[in-house]
Amino acid sequence: MSVTILKGNIVSAPALGKLDITEHGYLAAEDGVIAGVFDCLPERFASAPVEDWGECLILQSFADLHLHAPQYPMMGMGMDLPLLEWLDTYAFPAEAQFADPDYARDVYRRLAHDLIAGGTTRVCLFSSLHRPATLILMEELEKAGVTGFVGKVNMDRSGGAGLRETTEESMRETLLWLDACGDFTHVRPILTPRFTPACTDELMAFLGALARERNLPVQSHLSENRQEIELVRRLCPACGQYWETYARYGLWTDRTLMAHCVHSDARERRAMRDTGVTAVHCASSNNAICSGVAPVRVMLDEGLKVALGTDVAGGCSLRMFDAVADTVKASKDRRILDSWQTNFLTVAEGWYLGTTAGAKFFGAGNGFAPGDRLHALVLDDGELAAPARPLTVRERFERCVYVRQPDAIRAVWSDGRRVFG
Ligand code: GUN
Ligand code: FE
Questions:
Q1: Ligand that lies nearest to the alpha carbon of residue 224, given by its number in the listed order
Q2: pLDDT digits over 298-350, tens only?
Q3: Could you tell me the sign of the dihedral formed by the alpha carbons of 405, 410, 348, 257, in that order?
Q4: Ligand 1 contacts CB of residue 314 (under 6 A)
Q5: Residue in 72, 195, 280 to alter for ligand 1 test, most ligand atoms within 8 A of Cβ
Q6: Is the CB of 70 under 6 A from ligand 1?
Q7: Residue ranges of the domains in the chain?
Q8: What's the CA gap between 123 and 315, in Å, rounded?
Q9: pTM score above 0.85
Q10: For 3-61+365-420, which CATH superfamily applies?
């Protein structure tokens, strides 16, 4: 049996708003499975080698539940446009380039490396509509040590000249792609109708049946932007609300992720809660392309499942540290917009959403739960300016959520394997 023992200041979020902090403690794993967090090393580990990280913070690694892999090269561009114009002008032309497998290989190798170096070990990723590039993305993630779900995007009614698939092509390519996914261990397929404006009813019905037959999870977008919602209303007059355009085809289950949900009203949120759909909050993107400020506090109070996504490249950072900080900041904007009637999210709550809440979509437990595979990172904040008085571990942790420092992540473990540092 291989034993991993990490010594340092261990911080985890076992519940919303709660931090477990063990100073100079031990995080132990056996064959990649967490045995526990201990103040003193149990006798049975007495002869095992200890990796002593000194004063460093040992943290849960991140789960990014929404980002677009082919948009990574255009991150930070076109941010003055609203969603539908930004898609036409920037996102769709960028994704069209992924018809070229060599280009896809270069971009996706870099993306996979950058995810791991940034401490993101679990993902739910949109690829493009291209089957070969999607398989290349899965290969590169697998090689780098990223785990999670990847979707070949289905879109048979938008995209422009370079980014088109017919309904038949979309169905056929999806089946061929699923057939080719068997080779991957840590990266699995997720059905990915881009959003209702991009998918005909026929394609939606096909994907819903496929999700049921093969027991597959689903990811898409919901109520991100007001013009988008209006477009859905025109395209689907039979549906009272946006969410029903997914629900009527079997794409609305407790294994469904819906990104954004900025403008989801009480009825749409109730439909999410009652079914167990996860809302993926994308604070950076919602701000950058001016979609709105999602009511995350209200969603949590109502009992919805909420996790975080960077939404690269509507969002302009791949770093989940930024996603957590942006989530906290957006919740303060929401409080102000709500005339101080809703509470903001604390750093501890934001951290929970970026780690434990996302990991739950993959079946993980709370914080560093014994029995879970080890997903962790070591953070060295030693280069930050030192205040005159010594900081508590909690203060140091909070500062690291807000303040970036290059190369602070010293090591990363994903699914029990050391993948960085
Ligand atoms: N809705 C449909 N496609 C996209 C996309 O690529 N990015 C964002 N932010 N929203 C979308
Ligand atoms: Fe998105």
A1: 1
A2: 999 999 999 999 999 999 999 999 999 999 999 999 999 999 999 999 999 99
A3: positive
A4: yes
A5: 195
A6: no
A7: 3-61+365-420, 62-343
A8: 15
A9: yes
A10: Urease, subunit C, domain 1 (2.30.40.10)
